Amino acid sequence: MVESVVCVPEVFTLSAGAWRSTYGSFLPRKSIRFSESQVAVDGVLYWLADDGTSEYNYNYLIILFDITSEEFKEVNLPDRLACDHARYLSIFKLRNTLAVLQFDVREMLYDVWMMTDGVSSSFIKLFTICLTDVAALFVQEFRKSGEPVIGVRRICGQHDDLSLVVYEPNSKQINNIGINGYYYDVNAYMETLLLFDQPDLIIYGNTTPAFEA
What we know:
Layout: E1 2-3, E2 10-13, E3 18-21, E4 33-41, E5 44-50, E6 60-66, E7 71-76, H1 79-82, E8 87-94, E9 97-104, E10 109-115, E11 123-130, E12 136-142, E13 148-156, E14 159-168, E15 173-181, E16 210-212
Parallel strand pairs: 2-16
Antiparallel strand pairs: 1-4, 2-3, 4-5, 5-6, 6-7, 8-9, 9-10, 10-11, 12-13, 13-14, 14-15
């Protein structure tokens, strides 16, 4: 977690080409510490965060920003997710819904949870990713079908072998997609024409943490 500096958020409106203050009045509490794990789902931005009540232990929650209403909200996680300090959390987009991954370092497995109604603390556990024949595994992204893309590390003699595989939750089988190497960074994307009229697809002129609408 990284401690966030509280500031007034601004929204850049592409139609107007200008920055302005958000309409919403609610801001995250000053104690909230944001992580780098974030995702955008159906017009809502989600961040994994810690409520900042403990210096040594995380109390996880979700902070969201609704682009339509321009309001921040807090989403409480179930106790099993919020306060299990032996496991680490990250968030992803799964079938156009927010998913929470709970990683157990000791057992080298991921539990995959999915939000069921959009803005409440209702989560269901979908499946567990457990591969017994690997030295390490890292969930990189999810396919449109819901299958996780995983970076798998195996020990081959004196060298590590890292490959990208697709995990099939029903059969619990993995399919190697033929990409091998030392490091991967997998990201989902959506085709768009936004900023197409900008020479380098970047907007300059404001260093304040902000949101694009």
